[in-house]
Design goal:
The protein contains 16 helices and 15 strands. The chain is of the alpha/beta class. It is globular. Bound molecules: pyridoxal-5'-phosphate (PLP). Its EC number is 2.6.1.-.
Length: about 450
């Protein structure tokens, strides 16, 4: 098998320093120490330059977060202004600040109907964990503490704390111990048509997959089920886009059994699907809680939020009693100011409309990859795509995991100047939402070359 040459042998001094002290997230440390990191130096628009001056197209918008692209002067200016005026403000003890108040109001205006309240945090994980605590608190205050089981899905990704790892649906992540998954979480299969139900039409399968939720609720007992947690499309767990019939039926089932619906929009929120929220794209009309992060500031500042419906907020307000939960930097004024400016620019420059328009073009190009000899299935939604590699198209046989075909494909792409991501053998793309059609052509060309090179290496 061909060896990929080191991407940049001249970066070894920095790579060595990196290895000396820096423990990276989601990293195999022995591999990192053998290979060295790709060290990013500067970025503008959809492009990143590494420490050696090599230009890379960021086909991942960082981690699905730099929706507005890199290097926006306005965001830097707003952050600097806010840091000079009020660099920090705690929000625990009946204290507030103007940017956070304004941001909460703006988010309510943008979000799906009925989500009129906002709890701020710093990361997606914290937003989801907040949602989990709110679910439990709600049912306690409602006088139904026995409703304490939540249902999540296989191949979900909801974060990296112990509770959100437990909600996530990848058993490998539980291996580090710590009592994961925590108690009170039940799991159903993902609406993954290609692997879980391709003997049916996608439409019929969407209803079948939603039916798995009903079966689970009935199995556990509706009087014990507190909530269903799910991403509109599944990102980090496998790039799975559900059939159109799935979500409306899920919503009906949640209503029927009085199960709260928690929609994790950490990746899908802020334009990724071609609408402000994945809820709009997938027909989710009245979620009880929605988590957002990443695109809220285009990751110019760490910020996240849990959007809360009137039903839950009124219970918290009317019954009162302290909600023992929060973070030092909840409602950070600099983050809030940056988020407001990020949203202002997105509206002014019609960034969501661009995601829909260019996303349509991107989706058509990506769909054409279905004919490639090692591509079994392609799925996309707005400016998000998953390209699933298979050893045998006819039988849908996957490559042997030990071959790490996806990793090879992403290395081939990076060598050609495109960052994409291997989720197992599914190649994920989610470029910044400001991407243009000619730039999409560039992304497509390199993706195709990387697939061809991978096919040559493994067939
Ligand atoms: N939820 C979803 C859907 C995500 O994709 C992620 C991260 O990718 C998270 C939650 C966790 O966000 P964070 O990494 O900011 O904690």
């Amino acid at each position: 098998m061909n060896e990929i040459s080191p991407i940049n042998s001249e970066m070894t001094a920095l790579q060595r320093r990196d290895n000396s002290h820096y423990l990276h997230p989601f990293t195999d440390y022995s591999e990192l120490h053998a290979e060295g990191a790709t060290i990013q130096d500067r970025a503008e628009g959809i492009y990143i330059w590494d420490a050696d001056g090599r230009r890379i197209i960021d086909g991942l918008a960082g981690l699905g977060c730099v929706n507005l692209g890199y290097g926006r002067q306005e965001l830097a200016d707003v952050a600097a202004r806010q840091m000079k005026r009020l660099s920090y403000s705690q929000s625990f003890f009946k204290t507030s600040n103007e940017p956070a108040i304004a941001l909460a109001a703006k988010l309510v205006q943008l979000a799906p109907r009925g989500l009129n309240h906002v709890f701020f945090a710093n990361s997606g994980s914290e937003a989801v964990e907040t949602a989990l605590k709110l679910v439990h608190r709600y049912w306690k205050l409602a006088g139904k503490p026995e409703k304490n089981v939540v249902i999540a899905r296989e191949q979900a990704y909801h974060g990296s704390t112990i509770a959100t790892t437990s909600l996530s649906g990848n058993p490998v992540f539980y291996e580090s111990g710590g009592g994961m998954p925590i108690a009170g979480i039940e799991r159903i299969k993902a609406p993954y048509w290609y692997m879980n139900g391709a003997d049916q039409s996608p439409e019929a399968f969407g209803l079948t997959a939603a039916g798995w939720l009903e079966e689970k609720i009935l199995h556990v007992g509706p009087e014990r089920v507190a909530a269903f947690f799910a991403e509109p499309f599944q990102g980090a767990g496998g790039a799975i886009v559900p059939p159109a019939t799935y979500w409306p039926e899920i919503q009906n089932i949640c209503r029927k059994y009085d199960v709260l619906l928690v929609v994790d929009e950490v990746v899908s929120g802020f334009g990724r699907t071609g609408k402000w929220f994945g809820c709009e794209t997938f027909g989710i009309e009245s979620p009880d809680l929605v988590t957002i992060a990443k695109g809220i500031t285009s990751s110019y500042f760490p910020m996240s939020a849990t959007m809360v419906s009137d039903r839950i907020a009124s219970m918290l307000i009317e019954k009162g009693g302290e909600f023992y939960h929060g973070f030092t930097n909840s409602g950070h004024p600099v983050g809030a100011a940056v988020a407001l400016e990020n949203i202002r620019i997105m509206e002014l420059e019609s960034v969501v409309e661009n995601a829909a328009d260019v996303g349509h073009y991107f989706g058509e190009l990506i769909a054409s990859l279905a004919d490639h000899p090692i591509v079994g299935n392609v799925r996309s939604c707005g400016l998000f795509a998953g390209i699933q590699l298979v050893a045998d198209k006819e039988t849908r046989r996957l490559f042997d995991e030990s071959l790490r075909v996806g990793d090879r494909c992403s290395a081939e792409a990076l060598q050609r100047g495109l960052a994409l991501r291997a989720i197992g053998d599914t190649m994920a793309l989610m470029p910044p939402l400001i991407i243009t059609r000619p730039q999409v052509d560039e992304v497509f060309k390199i993706t195709l070359e990387a697939l061809d090179a991978t096919a040559r290496a493994f067939t």
